[in-house]
Amino acid sequence: MGAEKIAGSWFRYFPEHYLWSQLMCGEINLAPMGGTNFHEVDQIGKRLRGKEGDGEAWHDAWLEMADKVLSTAEAEEKKDHIQTASGAYIRSAIYRYTCERFIHPDDPRKAASYSKMLPHYEKGMKLQVPGFERIEVPYEEGSLPAWWIPPENPTGNDPAIAFFDGLDGSKEFTVLWGGLSLRRRGIGVLCVDGPGQGETLRLQNIPSRPDYEVPGTAAFDYLNTKEGVDSARIGIMAMSMGGYYAPRIAAFEHRYAACLTWGAHFDYHEVWLHRRQVLEAGGTVSSSAIWQLPWVLGKPDMDSAMEKCRAYTLAGVAEKIRIPICITHGQDDNIVPVDMAHRLYKACGSAEKELKIFKTEDGGSQHCCFDNLSMCGNWIADWWMDRFGTRG
């Protein structure tokens, strides 16, 4: 593992394990948004030294901190220390989500951990963000769970963004990654767990689908009828694997006013051909365990997952995009080559398109800029602010 070629200059907590370093770096970068605390994450990291790759050790370390911080939240709430309690509720939820990262989907601890963190996260956010609420977006015969974040100073006719996540994240993370920054700029945000994501996958067992315009249309329809939302200023955004989802939605749901990819994809099958080789050879340059893809796609094994994955391409699709689009990517992305962003930009049919490649000198250049989330999140929020003509 030490011989793996890792591009870019970024903080690697576990120098010989890319995946664990990527996750630790991302957790540390949630601190400015209130999702974590550096000291707490560092205490977890110290406990994990020398145990790289041990999924059970990872689970136990993060779970212990989740329980410890939850106890703090409950104790501080009893003292009426609301700000302290709310922050601790949110952090405990994020740690509890993180603990199940390497727990196999067949293990009941995975769904149980997620179920336990949801009410703590919701309580913490409601104590901090006025109007924060849980939404059930009507979808086929059921619904997609989401968090609604209203703009900080609502005018009664404000823009809004439907924000989907990727392969490994959930709506709890997109709230922190970008939702709160957009709120401060006068933009409402609907953070949605679509098919194959977060709660929709864990608790409803709904896998991903290549025709993501279906959940994308469901999100638009909800926002289009929501009181206080300007129907002419509804945007679509997604992160990581969502770099396929968002352009796919934009290509077929033209009612959206604009689209942004937080990390780009063009051919997801091509990316996983390489990623599978790395993981099966014992490498660590990936965003997840090898069983993550079959689980997300709803397939029993890697071979069938790879076959379904062939449909996740923007070839012949990107040309149908007509709305303005911004494509972002990290120059040193080690798991999704930056070439994917250039290919998407070239193929995109929109007359108004922008390509933003984040480099080390910009302050972050990794996958979705997990090495500097606050910088990237603010840049993206400013892009939407400029697009929609808000202030913040």
Q: What is the CATH topology classification name of the largest domain?
A: Rossmann fold
Low-pLDDT stretches are none
Shape category: globular
Task: Record the strand order, biggest sheet.
Answer: 1-2-4-3-5-6-7-8
- The first-level CATH class name of the largest domain: Alpha Beta
**Spatial separation of the terminal alpha carbons:** 45 Å
Global mean pLDDT:
97
Count the beta strands: 8
Q: How many domains make up the 3D coordinates?
A: 2
Q: Label the CATH architecture of the largest domain.
A: 3-Layer(aba) Sandwich
Percent in strands: 5-15%
Q: What's the CATH H-level superfamily name of the largest domain? A: Alpha/Beta hydrolase fold, catalytic domain
Biggest sheet descriptor: 8 strands, mixed
The number of helical elements comes to 14
Q: Which series of helices and strands comes N to C?
A: HHHHHEEEHEHHEHEHHHEHEH
Describe the structure.
The protein has about 400 residues and is of the alpha/beta class. The chain has helices at about 20-30, 40-50, 55-80, 80-100, 110-130, 170-185, 200, 215-225, 240-250, 270-280, 290-295, 300-310, 340-345, 375-390; strands at about 135-140, 140-150, 160-165, 190, 230-240, 260, 325-330, 355-360. About 45% of the residues lie in helices and about 15% in strands. An eight-stranded mixed beta sheet has the order 1-2-4-3-5-6-7-8, with helices on both faces. Helix 6 (about 170-185) links the parallel strand 3 (about 160-165) and strand 4 (about 190). The longest helix is centred in the N-terminal third of the chain and has 24 residues, at about 55-80. The protein is globular, with a radius of gyration of 20 Å. The N and C termini lie far apart (about 45 Å). The model has no long low-confidence stretch (mean pLDDT about 95).
